Amino acid sequence: MKKTLNIAHRGLSGLYPENTMLAFEKAIEVGCDGIEIDVQLTKDGYAVICHDEELNRTTTGKGFIKDHMLEELMQLDAGIKFGEKFKGLRIPTFDEFLEYVSDKDLLINIEIKNSIIDYENIEKIIYALISKHHIEDKVIISSFNHYSIRRCIRLARNIKTGLLYGDCIFEPYNYVQMVGANALHPEYNSVTKEIVERSHDNNLEVNIYTVNDEKDMKKMIDLGVDAIITNYPNLLKELL
């Protein structure tokens, strides 16, 4: 059985401000196998890394990312709400993140955040930047918007895709094949031994989110999942 991969959810987000370059650097320092990020678009069409559609929770900004120009977003603080000592961190652009990871041996899980706001052409913008940095073989694209994943598959079949879902879908391995994706990205509570085995029988990966408790991590490792997405890649590293 191959090793379960340790994917840092928004970087080492349990200990550092999520989706910041610092959180990504610290995740690499503790020995993660990959990094999961969330990509959205600014008003002027730039791809940036931030989980929420709104800026309020993680930054000093307010309102939706889609209503702000990139230049405006670059003025916001993306660290201070996590702690005073992180003051001065900012929202990374997708381009600068890819520049940073392009020479590293990491799997990059790019979640397209378009299930609430269906950003026009976001798939094309993301794929153009992947191509620019020549990392097609290092990425997997995921989304809760499965229509978006279909658009991704049409753009480039050589780039792996995964379907995010949070419910107990009946025979998800069959559904994933119908859509044409390469992997299931389920919420970990919905995963069973049968789902993992049947997925593997059909050459599908099972990459689960978001597992932060050691007991649950051990359970998922025992199930033989392909990757665990966690806020604490430092803890998972010790278990693996």
From TrEMBL:
What superkingdom does the record give?
Bacteria
InterPro entries the record matches: GP_PDE_dom, PLC-like_Pdiesterase_TIM-brl
Q: Which SUPFAM superfamilies match?
A: PLC-like phosphodiesterases (SSF51695)
One Pfam family of this chain? GDPD
Kindly state a single biological-process term from the GO annotations of this entry.
lipid metabolic process
**CDD domains in UniProt:** GDPD_TtGDE_like
Task: Cite a single GO MF annotation.
Answer: phosphoric diester hydrolase activity
* Domain GP-PDE residue range list: 4-240
Q: Which PANTHER family match?
A: GLYCEROPHOSPHODIESTER PHOSPHODIESTERASE, CYTOPLASMIC (PTHR46211:SF1), GLYCEROPHOSPHORYL DIESTER PHOSPHODIESTERASE (PTHR46211)
Name the UniProt record assigns to this protein: Glycerophosphoryl diester phosphodiesterase
